[in-house]
Amino acid sequence: MVNWSLSAKDFERVAAQVAAATQTSLSIAPEARVGGGSINASFRWHGGRGPLFVKIAPANGLEMFEAEAAGLEELRAADAVRVPRVLALGADDRHAFIALEWLDLRAPSARAEAQLGLRLARQHRVTRAQFGWHRDGTIGATHQDNTLTAGWAAFLRDRRLGPQFLLAQRNGYGRLAERGARLLGVIDAFFSAYRPVPALLHGDLWSGNWAADEDDSPVIFDPAVYYGDRETDIAMTQLFGGFGRAFYSAYEAGHPPAAGASTRVQLYNLYHLLNHLNMFGDAYLRQSSAIVDRLLAEQGG
């Protein structure tokens, strides 16, 4: 959870910077605090052209917000799923901030879920020559290495799972890291008959990172963008639940699954479970360990 506080003076300084960047007036304090995750403090703020959604972090959070802004623009350019517009971004010696357009979001209907499936399938048709992205980002509070890589198995090993197992080792989960090293050694076997293309990913597509707008159309936000196997986005939707049959049916109609996807779901969600383990601790150890052991067993390990 956010474990730092903001004073009236802090709000006034952020408001002045957002007002200057957007060239409009802004109230000196937010209207209300709103939900926005456990890392940043999020607010509805009254502006001269309507309300804004403003997230504030300590000053060292600027890089995280820069990656978020770049990711939203990358998704916007795909013209597939709606994302909030970035209005302002900056930092001073105390705080970093990002200001987005305010959207009146609500729980999605089955229609909105189906639209998300169709539009996400369209987004995943946007591809590049290599896996990764032109810049690094974050997944939660963890650095995410997006160094461009020609092969998907190598990217998954060296830029995703490998760094998480290294963090797990440092955090005291030695046995898990040892089993993880064995899994990394056989990771190519999971792709002997499957060659994904680098697709534009949201990167952190759980149920808390999408909703419906006032027209019951899907909106995605808080991305961890890069180009990777499209199945990683679909796997993430299954990790914590919250996506209905309408979503999967519509997505599969636009982008049918490849053989072996059910096994790769475990491999891809292991990355997110390890990240949660490294950020939040033991609650994710048993599930992470079970998946590692299951995947190793499939490869005779």
Written overview of the protein:
With about 300 residues, the protein is of the alpha+beta class. The chain contains nine helices and eleven strands. The strands form four sheets. The chain has a five-stranded antiparallel sheet, sandwiched between helices. The protein has a two-stranded antiparallel ribbon with strand order 6-7. α4 (about 150-170) packs antiparallel against α5 (about 175-185), α6 crosses α8 (about 260-280) and α8 runs antiparallel to α9 (about 285-300).
Specify the CATH class of the largest domain. Answer: Alpha Beta
* pLDDT averaged over residues: 95
Helix-strand category: alpha+beta
Name the overall outline. globular
Report the count of strand segments: 11
Short note summarizing the structure:
By secondary structure, this protein is α+β, with helices and mostly antiparallel strands.
List the helices and strands and how they pair.
Blueprint: H1 8-22, E1 32-34, E2 41-47, E3 50-58, H2 62-78, E4 86-91, E5 95-101, H3 110-123, E6 137-139, E7 142-144, H4 152-170, H5 174-185, E8 199-201, E9 210-212, E10 218-220, E11 226-228, H6 231-239, H7 245-254, H8 261-280, H9 285-298
Antiparallel strand pairs: 1-2, 2-3, 3-5, 4-5, 6-7, 8-11, 9-10
Helix pairs in contact: 3-7, 4-5, 4-8, 5-9, 6-8, 8-9
